[in-house]
Every structure is written in C-alpha cells, then in structure tokens.
Write a structure and sequence with these properties.
Order of helices and strands: EHEHEHEHEHEHEHHEHEHEHEHEEHH
Number of strands: 13
CATH superfamily of the largest domain: Glycogen Phosphorylase B
Largest sheet: 7 strands, parallel
Structural class: alpha/beta
Distance between the termini: 38 Å
Number of domains: 2
CATH class of the largest domain: Alpha Beta
Helix content: 40-55%
Strand content: 15-25%
Number of helices: 14
Radius of gyration: 20 Å
Strand order of the largest sheet: 3-2-1-4-5-6-7
Shape: globular
C-alpha cells in the first residue's frame, strides 16, 4: 500500500509560514506523501516572489499562476475563476487523497471548490473563526462547509464548526500552528536582524495594516489615522510589513511607501519578512500595531502588546495583551501611548496555544479512514 498523498496549498507568505512545521512533518512521514501546490502572491513580483524561498525548503509539485489584478473586485473574481480551472487540472494530474488548506483567502476558497467537484476530501485549518470586517468571514465558513476534516485553534471555534452542521468526530481542536512555530523556530538575535534589515530596532513598533474588504474604497480612512498617530511619536521607529494581495491593499501600501519616503530615518517597509525574521522581530519590538490576525494569534506568546485597529479582526478571540480600538486618530494615539508604556509580560495566557499541534494534525491525516470521507451528512444540533 502506497503513501497517502496530501496536497497542501499555499497562496500567501503568512500562510506558508504557519504551515511550515506541518509541511516538515508530512514530508518526513513514512505514511504520507507531500504534494505542495504554490499559487497566489507567491508568484507575484509585488508579493516578493516568495516561491523562491519555498523552493529552498520543499519540492514544489506545481506552481499555479492565478493572480491577475487582486486590487479590484473584478480582478479577485477572475483570479478565483482561473484558480478553479487550474486547480482542477492539477488535481486530475496529481490525484491527491486529501487536499489540505488553511484559512480563508479567495484563492483557498477556489481551491476548495475545485477539490469538492473533483471528489477529493478537504481538510481545513482555522475554521470557525470570526473576522467581521472582511469578506474572509464568509469565505471561511463556506470553506468549512466544503470540508470533511476540520482543525480548529480553540474549543470555541470547534463548537462553531459543529454548529455549522459538521460532525463532531471530524472536528479537532488542535491549537494554532503559528503559535507552535514560535516555540520551535530558531530565531535571530537583535544584531543579526538589524544587519539584515539595515535598520535599528531600538524603540520600534511593527505595523501591519490590511484592507477591510467589506469597506472597499475606504482604505484611506483606515491607514491615514494610523500613520498620523505614528507621526505624533517623534522618537518612535516603525517597521512596516506590507498589506496582503487584497482589494485595497495596493492603496494602503502606496500610502505606507509615501510615509517611509517622508520619514526615512525612522521607518522602513518590507514586503515579506518570512517567518524566522518576523518572529525574530517580535522579540525586539515594543508592540505590534494594525489589524493582522498574527497580532491576536502569535504575538501574545512574545509577551508584547497588540493594538488591534478597526473591525477586520472583530469577533476573534483575543488574549489580555490585545487592545482593540476604532480607526480614529485621537483614539489610536491614546491607545498607542498606553501600550508603549507596557513592559514585556511572558506570563500572558495565549488562548491559541496547545502542545504538539502539527503532530496532532499529521497523525489525524494518517489515521483517518478515506472511505466515505467526501460524503457528509448535516449534523443537526
């Protein structure tokens, strides 16, 4: 009997970083064969062409070009259509036993839909979560309904997936892969990271702002109050990581680039840090600012505060170190002053942390019977 073929799809830099430890475990398993499918912003020049970083660590089974113009609704829809066409062909060629996907992005939804039609069972990571400020919310719940196996990051999220009608014996609370990675990865020291970035990390905050896709066209109302508040702290240094390939992301990135050009001595913008440099930076900075999911999920494990701005992450479970505020200049300024005064607290309880997350997922992928896995009955509460 041959190895069970697991097709893992990655379309963004953050997602690949989260998956990396699990990919290692699948690759070395005597029972599983890794089929790594790379798509989305990994193949984009504006996304940093991060497929080159992936190829250094893993064999890429297929690269699937789908990113047309992700800065418009029409562009997103076309990319999803192209993804479905291309993914179905790849699935036909590779014949995976299970398609493993993470999260809620548009290319992941397209990949899941194609897998459903091709009769391949789907295993989904990060279901049951809420992000009320983005259409990712609807995409995530939809992906859960397309999937046969579910790996949630908290018990509350497990309950929510079951509430969607998924059978409890197929829904597993395994914790967060990203949080587990913070404990496993060998990190750079401050001087090493400063040399790579050519940027001093004294009195620095890390800032990541993504668009609120439920409010397309209002990107300036989100990013401008953030930049104005940052400007008011003259001694503060700022490390920006740029926005995802979402509608409105280009607009936000352009305004960040303008800010950096006006403040070259105390700010820098990077397209992609990669997981090692990103987590290494979290050991050096005073706080994280913006609306990235990482600010709620991984950052608390480093004992530093998060200022979560706006409603993109609204509804997500958060540690006590996370302060959420409206995207208004005065409110951001007041809350930023508050979090900058907080010392590092390594005793913060991170609700997403659980032991052996990647190992648990790998074992379930090995042990789950494939027969009838793609056939589902609605579980009625």
């Amino acid at each position: 009997m041959g190895k069970r073929k697991i097709a893992v799809i990655t379309g963004s830099r953050a997602e690949f970083g989260i998956l990396s430890n699990l990919l290692d475990k699948i690759e070395i398993s005597e029972y599983l064969e890794l089929q790594l499918l790379v798509t989305g912003s990994h193949l984009s020049v504006t996304g940093g062409l991060t497929i080159s970083e992936i190829s250094k660590k893993f064999k890429v089974s297929k690269s699937i070009e789908i990113l047309l113009n992700s800065d418009s609704r029409v562009g997103i829809s076309k990319a999803m259509g192209l993804a479905m066409i291309s993914m179905s062909e790849v699935y036909h060629d590779l014949q995976p036993d299970i398609v493993l996907i993470l999260g809620d992005r548009f290319e992941i939804h397209a990949a899941a839909t194609a897998a459903l039609i091709m009769g391949i069972p789907i295993a989904h990571i990060h279901g049951g979560e809420l992000t009320e400020g983005a259409w990712d919310e609807s995409l995530r719940h939809s992906i859960s309904k397309l999937s046969s196996l579910h790996f949630t990051t908290t018990e509350r999220y497990r309950e929510r997936v079951i509430q969607l009608g998924e059978s409890p014996d197929r829904v597993f609370n395994v914790g967060s892969l990203g949080v587990e990675n913070t404990k496993k990865l060998s990190l750079l020291n401050k001087h090493e990271l400063e040399a790579i970035l050519n940027f001093k990390l004294d009195n620095t905050v890390m800032v990541t702002v993504h668009s609120e896709t439920n409010k397309v066209g209002l990107e300036s109302e989100l990013i401008q109050p953030v930049l104005k508040a940052l400007s008011s702290f003259e001694d503060l240094r700022i490390l920006f990581t740029l926005s995802n390939a979402d509608v409105g992301g280009h607009d936000i990135n352009q305004q960040i680039h303008n800010f950096v050009q006006e403040n070259p001595d105390r700010s820098i913008a990077v397209e992609s840090l990669g997981q090692q440099k990103y987590f290494s930076a979290l050991k050096c900075v005073k706080a994280v600012v913006g609306n990235s999911s990482s600010g709620l999920i991984e950052v608390p494990s480093f004992g530093i505060p998060t200022l979560n701005i706006g409603c993109r992450q609204q509804g997500r479970i958060a540690a006590s170190s996370v302060i959420t505020c409206k995207a208004e200049y005065k409110i951001i300024k007041e809350n930023l002053a508050q979090i900058l005064s907080k010392p590092v607290d390594l005793n913060i309880h991170n609700p997403y942390e659980k032991h052996c997350t990647a190992e648990l997922i790998k074992d379930i992928l090995v042990e789950t019977k494939l027969e009838n896995l793609d056939k589902k009955v609605f579980y009625d509460l």
